[in-house]
Amino acid sequence: MRTLTGTDRLLGFLDRAFAAVASASPASRPNPAAALREDDALPPAERELSGALMRVNHVGEVCAQALYEGHAATCRDPQVRAAFREAAAEEADHLAWTRQRLDELGARPSVLNPVWYAGAFALGATAGVFGRGVALGFMRETELQVERHLEGHEVRLPAGDARSRAIVGQMKLDEAAHAGAAAAMGAVELPQPVKAAMRVAARVMTATAHRV
């Protein structure tokens, strides 16, 4: 097996980035909503709300791919890089599931996905530079905030939209598992100002993606 060159790694990164932004990769696990019937009687207003919420969730998964890609690019610990790659694979399932649900609802993904990806990659790469504990701490805090965000969506999703609820429920379980794994590997507690800044950035993203 030949050694990968810088060009090989760049092309690999570009391929993964394009796949994330375009949601081009299939899921490796069955869709949690596969066995549930589509509710064709969902009122237009509720269908629109579900579409907006699932667009936000789809953006979050685009960002997750970028964050883990950025972490892996700058983190020098091979064990941590492997953990990031494993988490990214599960997040790729979320990306595929949310994109499928958007299509079913007749909703479109965010037109700003390339922007979201670039910003999240920069954040992930910056966290990775500060070493194992900080990178894992950033991963843990991100997953905890996403878990709380998904809990809010479970409340807001229309009661009749069982398919979206099933997807969000499985995503929430996976995010909690990723946060736990990061903690077990030695994640450090991030300073409160950093956590607050992450929450503000997430609110800006979700408010924008809800509409655009």
Describe the structure.
The protein has 212 residues and is mainly α. It is built from seven helices and no strands. The protein has helices spanning 6-22, 44-74, 78-105, 113-129, 132-156, 162-184, 192-209. The longest helix is centred in the first third of the chain and has 31 residues, at 44-74. The termini are far apart. The model has no long low-confidence stretch (mean pLDDT 90).
Question: What layout of secondary structure does this protein have?
Answer:
Layout (H helix, E strand, L loop, with lengths): L5 H17 L21 H31 L3 H28 L7 H17 L2 H25 L5 H23 L7 H18 L3
Number of helices: 7
Major sheet: none
The proportion of residues in beta strands is: under 5%
Radius of gyration: 17 Å
Mean pLDDT: 90
Low-confidence stretches: none
**Alpha-beta classification:** mainly alpha
Helix content: over 70%
Shape: globular
What series of H and E elements makes up the topology? HHHHHHH
Termini separation comes to: 45 Å
